[in-house]
Design a protein that fits this description.
Number of helices: 9
Number of domains: 3
Helix content: over 70%
CATH architecture of the largest domain: Orthogonal Bundle
Mean pLDDT: 94
Radius of gyration: 21 Å
Number of strands: 0
Order of helices and strands: HHHHHHHHH
Structural class: mainly alpha
Low-confidence stretches: none
CATH class of the largest domain: Mainly Alpha
Amino acid sequence: MKDKDKIRAVNYGMKLLTARQKTEKEMVDKLKAKNFTDDIIHYVLSYLKSYGYLDDKKYVELFLREKININRYGTMKLRNKLLQKGIPSELIEEGLGRIDEETMIENAVYLANKKINSLNGQESIDIRHKVYRHLASKGYSYTTIAKALTLVMF
């Protein structure tokens, strides 16, 4: 393992993190794509973690905050997105456990109202089915959808 390769790999890792936060898996994949050896990749991960630049727990927290407040995703979609990014299940469950159910219901109600407004002039049962499918596609559970529908439907 050459010092020059270590420095080049660390610099590349830092460059990747300037664009946006990355998970450990994403970092490993990017470094492997640049043909760095496993030893160098391990060194880069250790280095970035030691300075707090690479932290999956912090990543989960920021990801959840963004996707709940901006995209208004439900817990099932959030879980799947994080799994795709290579986050360990225990970190995902810990992060999802901190989400307030009321926030999920508020977001579902907001999305339901938005969908209902776009479906003016349709039959009530059709609207109900379309809103249900829309919320399910956003990752909301049946119980959250049911609560949201009772709040917004007549």
